Amino acid sequence: MTVLIGAGVLVCLLSAAGAVRARTVLDRLHFLTPVTSVGTPLIAIGLAVHAGWHLATALLLLCAAVMLPAGPVLASATGRVAHRATR
Amino acid sequence: MTLLLGAGLVLLVGALAPAVYLGLRGDALERLVGLQLSGALLVPTMLVLTYGYDQTSYLIVPLVLAVLSFAGVLVFLRLLGNRP
Fold this sequence. Notes:
By secondary structure, chain A is mainly alpha-helical.
């Protein structure tokens, strides 16, 4: 549980640091997806292991399941608008 | 302070603060990326804090935030994409 949550927190921290360091919008978008597709599911699975199986655990995993496809979809939509703006 | 509250504090200070900073500077599209990152980071932060305070009834808040943040950013993208 500690390892999973720690790894998720680390992914979130590194992504935020990378996004601040990136110069352009398209570079910055690369750091959005790890938060939603790796960091949040890791933290949710770690919390599910910590809490055990309850109704609240299903809600927690649903939260991660909603976040999982949202990041890549938003990144691709934002990338399209950014590409059109820079053209 | 428990481990989960500590993780929540680390996420708030180390990840959410830089994301909010990104949302405050640059042009509209750069600020929107900051908003996306803030929304994406606020969800795991709330999950950790919910279990840190042992109040699982609060879990509906990050779930609603995840859905509304996704829809809200799509609306902003549509508005920004139609700009001349």
